[in-house]
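REQUEST ID: PR-0412
SUBMITTED BY: lab tech R.K.
PRIORITY: routine
TASK: structure prediction, single protein chain
INPUT:
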Amino acid sequence: MDKKIMIVDDAMFMRKTIRNALEGAGYSRIVEAADGEAAIDLYQQEMPDLMLLDITMPGKSGIEVLEAVIRIHPEGRVVMCSAIGQEMMIEKAVMAGALDFIVKPFKKEELLKVVKYSLGE
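STATUS: complete
OUTPUT:
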């Protein structure tokens, strides 16, 4: 699959978990960022087809990153990843332009279903 996917999460374990699931499903063009500032810079360089973005990170929040991405590329596809109990943040993210969201912890199958849907596959 030639779609480029960007993973943004401050937890290395979560980035690795998501990467492994994506690679196992045939996605090979994957880039990662560990914080909001790096995510915005990398997004501009890479222009991924899809961004999987953690809501809660140090520095710039996922919502701030989402807003920046939508300003850069109004058609940008962003799926928010959040922990259980962050319903208000999810609502805020959808209002700011998130395409979808997935609640952590999630099963690999759930992640891949959301990714495929978000990429129109």
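NOTES: The first strand starts at residue 4 and ends at 8.
REVIEWED BY: pending
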